[in-house]
Write a structure and sequence with these properties.
This protein is mostly beta strands and about 170 residues long. Helix content is about 0%, strand content about 45%. It has a single domain, classed as YVTN repeat-like/Quinoprotein amine dehydrogenase (Methylamine Dehydrogenase, Chain H). Strand 4 and strand 5 form a beta hairpin.
Length: about 170
């Protein structure tokens, strides 16, 4: 729904009927000057390990961008800019890149917390490390085509990072 001051709430999109219960929802509002043009409004839903992503048009219609699988239950679903992110505490992240239209799954150590700042996704893990990925650049390592996940910090006692809060000026 969207709010119009003169007419109240209006429905802007209704998905096709799904055969499963929606457990997670992520909504991306229009990003000015975004790479997708008319497809800068997106909504994603997840159930268990399956994710469906739609692009929303101004007329209220939606077109399915894709169905993606994380391989493990999705525990967090959110956008960082136009990039869709799915995470699981088991140590998997999935990233859909809006420019390349590519879905990438990456194994990392088990994830306890996350936050996003600008185009950076930060992951707090149970081995005491904080990792980051610049999802805007969607960097891939040349040798194995994996996401470039960089360790930002490692706790010397390897205490799990159970909460993250990041603020960039």
């Amino acid at each position: 729904p969207r709010m119009k001051e003169t007419s109240g709430w209006q429905q802007v999109f209704s998905s096709p009927r799904l055969d499963w219960v929606i457990e997670r929802v992520a909504l991306n509002a229009k990003v000015l000057g975004g790479a997708l043009g008319d497809h800068d409004k997106m909504v994603a839903v997840a159930s268990c390990s399956e994710i469906i992503l739609w692009a929303l048009q101004a007329d209220g219609n939606g077109s399915e961008i894709g169905v993606f699988h994380l391989g493990v239950p999705v525990e967090a679903l959110f956008f960082v800019g136009n990039q869709l992110i799915a995470t699981s505490h088991t140590g998997k992240i999935g990233v859909w890149n809006a420019v390349t239209k590519h879905w990438q799954i990456q194994d990392v150590v088990p994830i306890n917390s996350y936050d996003a700042a600008g185009t950076f996704l930060l992951l707090g893990c149970n081995n005491g490390s904080i990792y980051y990925v610049d999802v805007q650049k969607f960097p891939l390592r040349m040798k194995d085509n994996d996401l470039l996940v960089t360790e930002l910090y490692r706790d010397p006692t390897e205490d799990a990072v159970t909460a993250l809060s990041v603020y960039l000026t």
